[in-house]
């Protein structure tokens, strides 16, 4: 199985980029992982919130295959602790899907079309974090999940 993380907009913070790269490298020992950035919509300040979500949604859906499982990182999604999230990953690996795609949307969330296409929603916290920091937090949790599945000492129970 491949895990893909799709994000809207680039990260400018060199410290975050360095940490994200470190966890991507660690994660590669456990699973094929791809991290893809969809560029910000040009002239978005001239668009309404709904128009921006619609345009971003079209770009997101253009990156999804019909056989992918699409999971949205959404504030209204189900929350898991790290052990439950590792079990969530294992369940998807056991299901036989080829690619599990997680998506971090733009500043206004997702379009209705993206919600309709999705196979689920998860939330990392009730708190709000920047879209740039969520990337690091999520990739770290993926790594943590795989170390839990392998009974490795990274996660102290």
Note down, in words, how this protein is organized.
Homodimer. Belongs to the RNA methyltransferase RlmH family. S-adenosyl-L-methionine binds at residues 73, 105, 124-129. Its main location: cytoplasm. This protein is an alpha/beta fold and 157 residues long. The chain has a single domain, classed as SPOUT methyltransferase, trefoil knot domain (Alpha/beta knot). It is built from five helices and five strands; from the N terminus they run βαβαβαβαβα. It has helices at residues 14-27, 49-61, 82-94, 112-117, 131-149; strands at residues 2-8, 32-38, 69-79, 99-104, 120-123. A five-stranded parallel sheet has the order 2-1-4-3-5. β1 (2-8), α1 and β2 (32-38) form a beta-alpha-beta unit. α1 (14-27) packs parallel to α5 (131-149) and α3 crosses α5. It is globular. The model has no long low-confidence stretch (mean pLDDT 94).
Task: Name the helix and strand elements from N-terminus to C-terminus, one letter apiece.
Answer: EHEHEHEHEH
Overall, the morphology is: globular
Largest β-sheet summary = 5 strands, parallel
What is the count of DSSP helices, taking H or I runs of 4+ residues? Answer: 5
* CATH 2nd-level architecture: 3-Layer(aba) Sandwich
The whole-angstrom Rg is 15 Å
Number of DSSP strand runs: 5
CATH topology: Alpha/beta knot
The assembly state of the depicted protein chains is single chain
Order of strands across the main sheet: 2-1-4-3-5
Give the termini separation. Answer: 27 Å
Mean pLDDT: 94
The percent range for strand residues is 15-25%
Briefly note the structural class of the backbone. alpha/beta
CATH superfamily: SPOUT methyltransferase, trefoil knot domain
Report the uncertain regions. Answer: none
Tally of domains:
1
Q: Helical amount among residues, as a percent range? A: 40-55%
CATH class category label: Alpha Beta
């Amino acid at each position: 199985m491949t895990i893909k993380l799709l994000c809207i907009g680039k990260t400018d913070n060199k410290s975050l980029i360095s940490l994200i790269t470190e966890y991507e490298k660690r994660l590669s020992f456990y699973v094929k992982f791809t991290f893809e950035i969809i560029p910000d919509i040009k002239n978005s300040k001239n668009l309404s919130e709904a128009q921006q979500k619609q345009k971003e949604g079209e770009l997101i859906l253009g990156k999804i295959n019909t056989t992918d499982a699409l999971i949205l990182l959404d504030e209204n999604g189900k929350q898991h602790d790290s052990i439950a999230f590792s079990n969530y990953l294992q369940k998807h690996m056991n299901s036989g899907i080829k690619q599990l795609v997680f998506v971090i949307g733009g500043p206004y969330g997702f379009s209705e079309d993206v919600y309709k296409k999705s196979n689920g929603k998860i939330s990392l916290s009730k708190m709000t974090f920047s879209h740039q920091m969520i990337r690091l937090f999520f990739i770290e949790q993926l790594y943590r999940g795989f170390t839990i599945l392998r009974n490795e000492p990274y996660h102290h129970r």
